[in-house]
Sequence to fold (380 residues):
Amino acid sequence: MPGRSPRPVDNGVWFAPGRANLMGEHTDYNDGFVLPFALAQGTTVTAARRDDRVLSVISRQRPGLPVEVPLDGLAPGAVDGWAAYPAGVAWALAAAGYEIPGATLAFDSDVPPGAGLSSSAALECATALALAGLARIDVPRPELATITRRAENEFAGVPSGIMDQSASLRCQAGHALLLDCQSLETTQVPFSAQLLIINTRASHQLAEGEYGARRRECEEAARELSVPTLRSITSCGITATLSDPVLRRRARHVCTDNARVLRTVDLLRDGKYAEVGELLTQSHESLRDDFEVSWPEADVAVEASLGAGAYGARMIGGGFGGSVLVLLGEAAPGVGPGAGVSTGAEHRVRAAVKHAFAARSFAIPEFLAAHPSAGARRLR
Ligand code: GLA
Fold:
């Protein structure tokens, strides 16, 4: 265009979504199965290459000056706060042997933080795509998931599994992603339903210590059962042989939730959404009673949703705060991304949950749309 200098080819805009998980909670770090889907909500990053070996990051959600991180000599412990996530990705890409240039990254996100919808994975995966794009390198998505997880585990110090980054990077629109967390093989499972996310707004301060404790319990149970990981248990009855009642419950949850993932895939293929709903509710009960990671607001949200006629509902994510996923029913014609339609079932559930929360003086819940959406990508 006359009078306008062309946009430098190296600069661009990338997007990575948050996720909800249909089935398979606390199964990923046990080498099991998960079935997440990408949300339409996510993190957008506007990125520009720079020549001074500095990573400069700024976020609309964190007002303040940009955080400037020298790339040379970058190591875990060098950066804290939210900037540890993008800096960790630059570190992990370099540690995997990729040459990453200096960059200015400006983030914006509509994934609520602390809601168990993987706002940090969205931040990491958007960063990874932007840095790889600026460097003009093509990193396979499974490897990118491993790199971004390493950033979260080793640089940001959060001991999570591989689900969230895989979901953000590998999901497809209109599908849930069956991920085998041992082989990292994936299958796209067509999935279109009426869904609702309830952000219970409960803080999850305890979450990190409890998450680490659950991981250790699962490892101990696997040791006692003489299997490499709980994934190797195919008959859940064997968990009854564990002498410690706590380990028995933890292992039973992991085994039954793995089975529920595979059953859910079969039911989705047959279009049996009411039965998928029943499995969702069973998974919630297992997370509440056996794995003991639910919280009062989640239990109330599930109960109220079921009372209002939902097919099923369960807490999602690590637990102790965050969101509940509600399966309202089969996909209704005209209800989809951007359709702006909410159905009678959704109105009934929202009203019942609001009422139940008010009766217990809980915080006012936030309702979010949940449409199985595309994974991370370049926008411009
Ligand atoms: C968090 C972690 C995931 C997974 C879930 C529980 O979201 O980041 O890796 O372990 O908890 O399923």
Remarks:
- The first helix runs from residue 84 to 95.
- Residues 92 and 151 are 6 Å apart (CA to CA).
